[in-house]
Specification:
The chain has 108 residues and is α/β, with parallel strands linked by helices. It has a single domain, classed as STAS domain (Transcription Regulator spoIIAA). Helix content is 34%, strand content 32%. A 5-stranded mixed sheet has the order 1-2-3-4-5. Helix 2 links the parallel strand 3 and strand 4. The longest helix has 16 residues.
């Protein structure tokens, strides 16, 4: 069965959310709840380096979070996306929309 694991770490001006596993219509609920609760209060860094698979449901959560963060004058960063995550985001045409970073030191 597909699973997603979330680990939250706080930084000075951001929260890092390490995401591992699969984000799809079966697993997105916890991811959505966590992401939506964080983007209203701080910059959010999504470490997607351990994503095996992400479908349009997961991309939709990230896109909505991006819009919510902008409304609150924060940003959503994508950190070190796995090839599966990068490919999924590219296929939607939204890759250029998200700041892609390699380290939390790049958070502005």
């Amino acid at each position: 069965m597909d699973q997603v694991t979330l680990v939250e770490k706080k930084g000075a001006n951001y929260v890092l959310l390490e995401v591992a596993g699969t984000i799809n219509s079966y697993t997105f609920t916890d991811f959505q709840t966590k992401v939506y609760s964080l983007v209203k209060d701080t910059n959010l860094v999504l470490d997607l380096s351990e994503i095996n698979k992400i479908d349009s449901t997961g991309i939709g959560v990230i896109l909505a979070a991006y819009n919510d963060a902008e409304d609150s004058n924060y940003k959503v960063y994508i950190m070190r996306p796995s090839s599966a995550a990068r490919k999924a985001i590219e296929s939607t045409g939204f890759l250029d929309m998200f700041p892609i970073i390699q380290s939390v030191t790049e958070v502005v």
